[in-house]
Each structure stands twice: as C-alpha cells, then as structure tokens.
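Can you give me the bound-state structure? Components:
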Amino acid sequence: MFGVGFFLALAFALFAVGAFGVLTRRDPLVMFMCIEMMFNSGNLALVALSRYLGLASGHALVFFVVAVAAAEVAVGLGIIIAIFRTEKDVNVDHLSELKG
Amino acid sequence: MNLALPLPEYGVLGLALVVLLYDLVVPERVSRRALGWVCALGFAGVLALLLRSDAPQVAPVPTAFGGMYVADGLALAFKTLIVAAAMLASLASLDYLEARGVRWQGEYYLLLTLVTFALMCLVSAGDLLTLYVALELNSIGFYALVAVLKGRSLTSSEAGLKYLILGALSSALLLYGISLLYGLSGTVSLAGLAAWAAGAARSPALVVALALVAAGLAFKMSLVPFHMWAPDVYQAAPTPVTAFLSVAGKTAALALLVRVLDAALGGFIGVWDKLLMVLMAATFVWANLGALKQRDAKRLMAYSSVAQAGYLAIGVAAGSALGLQAALFYALVYVFTNVAAFQVLQLVAESGGPELSGLRGLGRRSPGLALILAAAVLSLAGIPPFGGFFGKFYLFAAGVREGIVAGRSWLLALVGLAVVMSIVSLFYYLILVKQMYIEPADPEAPGTGGPVAVPLGARLVLGVCAAMILWTGLYPSPILAWIRQALF
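Here's the bound-state model for the whole set.
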C-alpha cells in the first residue's frame, strides 16, 4: 500500500514544511532543525527512489548526506555559541550589525 | 583504477597534515605565523606540479575511483587557478591574523588547506556524490573561516551564522533537486546523466529538478537573488578569507556550472538557459546598481564580485566551446585582479579604516598601492590595456556569436544588458579611484599621515597580481594557448 508515490509525497511535504520554517522562524536553532528536515526530505526521496529503481547508488549518497549534515550543524552550533558568549542573544533579527 | 591520478590533491592533503602536526608539536606560546609561509610554499609546489602536467588530449579522459574523479583539462585549469588563489591567500593572511592576536592560526591554515582540497575535488567531480560531498566540505570550511575572528569581531560571527544558514538552505535545495534528477535518470554519474539527457523527454518534474539544482549552484556562484549572503560575508569576514572566497569559491562554482549544466545536462539547454538568463539579468541590474550606494570598501567590492559572477556565467549560458574558453580566461583575470584589490584594501584598512574615505590621499601617501588598486578596479571595469578588457571582450563576443549562430535572441539581449551595466559599473569603480587621487585627505583623520606599511607577504601578493594584470592585458596569447590546450 505504501508505494514510491507515497514516499515522494511525504518527502515533498517535509521539504515544504522545512522551507516554510526556515523562512518564518527567527531562532537559529529552530532554523537548523527546519534545514535538517529539508535534508531528510531529500534523503527520503533518494532512498525511496533507490529502492524503486533497484539501485544502490541512492542509498550510498544518503549515508554521505547524513554525515555532512551532522558536520554542518556542529559548525553552526559552534558559531552560535561564539555569538551567545558575547551577546547573550542569538535571534537573527537582532543580529543586524551588517546592512546595506 | 589509477590511484596516482589525484596527485595534486594528495599534495594539498599532505600539506594539511604538515600544518596539523606543526600545530601539535610546536609549543603553545610560539606564534603560528610561520604556517603562512609553510602553506604558501606548499601551494607553490602544488602549483608547479599543476603547471607542469599536460591536459589529456584524447577523448576518454583519465578517471579514478570508478569514474567519481575526473582528471580532464577543465579540472586541471580550474585547479591551477584555485591553488594560485590559495597561495596568495596564505601570504595575505600572514600579518592580518598576527595583528589581530588570533591564537588559533593553526586551525585557520588547516581550514584553508582543507577548503582548497575540497575545491580541487569539486572541480574534478565526475559524480553527483563527489560533487555534493566536496561542495559541502568546502562550504563548511568557509563557514568556519568566515567566523574565525570569534571573540575579536562580532560581525565576523554574525556573517558566519548568516552564511551558514543560507548555505545550508541552498544545499538542501540542491539535494532535493539531485534526488529528483536521480529519480528521473536513475544514475548519479555525470557521464550517465549526459547520456540520459541526450534522449530524455521533458517533463514538469524535470523543470523543477533543474530549477532546484540551478538555484543551489547559483547560491555558490552568488547570482541574484541568491546573493543575499555575499555583501554581509564579504564585509565582515577576515579580508584574506574574503579574497579567497570571492575568487576560489567563485571559480570552482563556475567549473561546477560548466560540468553540471553544460556537460551533464547539455541536452536540456533549452530548459535551463531561460532560468540561468533570468538570474543573470537580475544580477547585472541589481549588483551594479546596489554597488553605487555603498560606503564600505569591502561591501562595494562584494557587489562588484556579484556582478562579475554574472559576467562569468555568460560563458555557461552560451554553452559553446568559445564561451567556455572565454569564461576560463575571465576567471583567470578575475582571480588576480580581485586578490590585488582586496590586498590593497586590507592594507589601507589597517590604518585608515574600512570606509571608502580611508582611501583618501592614498595617491600621494603610497603611490604604488594606489596604482595597483586603480589598475585592478579598471581591469574589473573592463578598461584596456588591462586583462579585464580582453576577458570581457571574449565573453561578450562568445555570447554574441552563439546568439547569432544558434539564433538565441535572448542571449543577444542579455549580452546587450551586460554591456550597458558594465558601463554603469565604471561609475563605482571610478569612485574608488577618485577617493585615492582627487578627494583631499582629512588631516585630522587617523592614519592619513605617512605611507601605508606593506609587509613582505603583501608585497609578494601585490607583485604577482600586478604582473598578471598587465600580462593578461598586454600579451594574452600564451595564456589563451594554455586555455585552448586545456579545453581542447
């Protein structure tokens, strides 16, 4: 009952929710979570398509994407901590030293 | 499988290990400044290796790791530019970091070498997997490099966070696009995609996939409207990082556009060229008009770099061999002119501050620096006899030729717009020149007294760049011959 179409629709829904969240939320931590959701929508589509096509290449790509996303968040949290140490506030709307 | 093929990459990876070990064994209290020289020498060695190796001249290009790594002439030429930029960036970083009391210079140079390694893998990618991983490795390295002044400058961290969020968002778009392409084609190899694109039918899903992939790549190239990060990041990042990001990051993105759009998805040129041309038209107008009102010198150069990315993309939109050669030549000129401009701005900012007014009276204080900055910005504007003139001329000629031969009237209109906006760009480039030579220096302002101090590393950078700006303008034929040989 769960065909490839179901998983692709779910992936699209996840992608849309994630994109909406990144564009509307102002807390960098929540924005990261939304971006992770978008990454995982890509992963889900890749895995579903890989199984549907009977190929292993999509599965392999997903492993790398998971590792890369973890590294991205590690650097992101590092930068957030660096900002928090001096500012005590990480709302992206309040970070407005740079404009023009 | 030929494991010896990625020899230049092994060289850069070896350099990264040397940096790591040096940082480990040298006592804590000793400054890591010497690592700048180690990196510059290491990159010079790899550059010599790249310049000595010949591009393959027969059809099946050598590959390694089951076709995931391609060592063709395109990769070789772009790697040469990237390693040259890395060498100049290491030299420019020497005194910049020392002056700011950055203790984590070991990490800085390690990130610089690893980003260079990632960019080299990126231009050699033969597979969407290599492409994605290399793209992310260089992006993550750049996020950290932009924010490397943590605790010294809040804007550096702010720029790092903005860059990271927007960069991760663009990667997610690219990944979703890749997953759609994979579903349609059933392959992740670029050669496989090219074979599929030659005969595949067009569908709405294909248009969405191409739009997502183009958006992801346009972000790395900083084409409008995916350029929002560029002004903030360029302004707040350490100046050597800005210079490296603007030249190496952009040339690698150009190579990627060529590989993915022209080579792998060339069969769909009728679909993606519309998307790309809309982005480019927006880039020409927005970046050139946006630069006019800037007061911060690095921010002005950021808008200028966005506009330059638009010119480079003309070669990709043309999709012809001539367009590719022109884009590569312009990228070469752009690397050296932009590094020269940022190097002068970096030196001036140490005494006169980041504002444009800090340049006042530079023509009298440091005539040499003023002359190099004037030559660099006039080259970027496309004024003869500098390299930028020939670069733009070749690009526009390639666009017009392709427009006429293939009957693509939109391309002709786009080149026309590029010419007009290039005249507009002359205005803001001349603002820089006016500040240096005409505006009277304010005697009360700090650092306007004597000549600007130019340390040895900066001297080397400026010497190399000035020589290349003149060489590409006055006698470009050996360089053009090298490019033709690389892209046979």
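A couple of observations. The mean pLDDT of chain B is 92. Chain B is about 75% helix and 0% strand.
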